[in-house]
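Sync notes, pocket subgroup
Present: LS, DG
LS reminded everyone that the earlier model was apo-only. Rerun requested with beta-D-glucopyranose included. Inputs:
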Amino acid sequence: MSDTYRFPDGFLWGAATSAYQIEGSPLADGAGQNIWHRFSRTPGMITGGDTGDVACDHYRRAAGDVELMRALGLTAYRFSVAWARVLPEGRGRVNPAGLAFYDRLVDQLLAAGIRPAVTLYHWDLPAALDDRGGWLNRDIAGWFAEYAEVVVRALADRVALWTTLNEPWVSADGGYLYGVHAPGHKSLFEAPLASHNLLRAHGAGMQAIRAAGGRQAGLVVNLEPKYAASDRAEDLAATARAEAYMNRYYLDPVFLGSYPDELREVFGEAWPAFPPADFDLIRQPLDYLGINYYTRSVTCHDPTVWPMRFGRVRQPQHPYTEMDWEVYPQALTDVLGWVTARYGRIPLYITENGAAFADAPTATGPVVDDPLRVDYYRGHLRAAHRAIQAGADLRGYFAWSLLDNFEWSCGYARRFGLYHVDFATQRRTPKASARYYTEVIRTHGASLAG
Ligand code: BGC
C-alpha cells in the first residue's frame, strides 16, 4: 500500500523563498534600491504599512536558515537573487559584495547537501531601471541579459536549476494593470507592453544563461485552472478569456510562438501589434517549466469586472485559505496534465505550492500546530503523485514557503511558512507541517498513504 506514493528516483524535495520577501537589509553592502523598497513606502499600498526592510533578516541569518533546511531534510532550495544587490544601477557596475552573499549561500547549501535552484527575477526590479521606464522600455531585454550573465558566470558551476522570471503574469497584472504591486501603475495600455517585454527579457535571459555556462534553465509561471461555472455560452466564453489571460498568456508565446486570440478581446484597442521577429527571441527551448500552483477558479461571466468581464464563483463546500483561495488539490493534477497535453511532455517542477492560514503571531511551544496546512500539503502532494501516474514528467516539488515572510501587499499579515517566524524576535519555530513534510521526504512519499 505504501508503494502507492513512491516518487521517481532523483525527485527534488524543496522549499522556496524570494529575496525581497525574506532578506531584509535591502540597501546593505552597496545594494541599490528596488521598486518594492519604493512601493512599500507609498502610503496605503501594504497592509499595516509593512516593508521588507527587516523581513526575516535572512541576509544576516542565512547560515542558520540553511541549518533549518537541513533539519527539514530538503534536497533542493529555490531562492531568488536581488538584481539591485548585484547591479545597484541595474546595469553596468557590478557590486562584488552583493554577489558574494549569493556565492556564500550557494556554498552553504551545497555543504548541507541541498541543491540550489536560482531565480533571477522575483519582482524586485532595480529602481534605477524603473526610472528608465522599467518593463515598458524595450531595452530591458538587454538589461536583463546583462544581469543574467553576471550572476550565471559567478555561480553556474554550482547551481542545479536556473529560472529567468518568477510569474511574469503577476509582474504585469499587479504591477501595470491593477497597480497593487510595484511599480503600482494602473493602465490597460501599459500592461500588454510590460508582458511582452517580460517575455522578451525571458528569451534574452535564456540565451545569456546558456552563453554563460548555465545548465537546466527555464521559466516559472503561476497557473490557475479555470472551470466554467455553467455551460451557458457567456460563462464558457468568460472561462476561455480567463484561461487565456492567466494560463496561456506566457506559455503560448514561449512554446507555440504566438499569443492566444482571446487577449485581443480582453485588451481591445490597447492590444498592440507586436513585431513578429520578437517571437523568435521569446521562443527559446526550455530545459524545464516551473509551475506555481495555489488554487483554481470556477469562472463566470461578470460584466462589472474591468477589463476582463469574468469573475469567480465561491465554492462553499470547500475550505478556503486566509488569502481567500479555494483549497482544491485535484486542479493541480489537472493542470500538470493540461500542460503536458498542450505543450508536450517537458520536464516539470512544482516550484511553489502552499497555503496561508492564521497561525499565532508568537509561538508558545516547540512546534506550532497547523493542521489545515498539513491537510493542504497532504492533498497536494497526493495530487502531484496522481499527475505523475497519469504521465506528467514531474521532477520536483518546492513548498512555499520555507519561512513566514513579507507577503507583498498583505505585508506580514499572511503566513505561508513551514517555519513560524516571530517577527519581533526573529525566532524560528517549526510548524507541524514542517514535521509532516520531513516525513514525506524521508519516506520518498510513502508516508502520504497514511
Ligand atoms: C509568489 C510568491 C507569493 C506567493 C503567495 C506567488 O505568487 O511567487 O512570491 O508569496 O505566491 O502569494
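DG: Residues 18, 21, 166-167, 170, 222, 292, 352, 400, 407, 416 surround beta-D-glucopyranose (CB under 6 Å).
LS: The chain has a mean pLDDT of 98.
Action: DG to write up.
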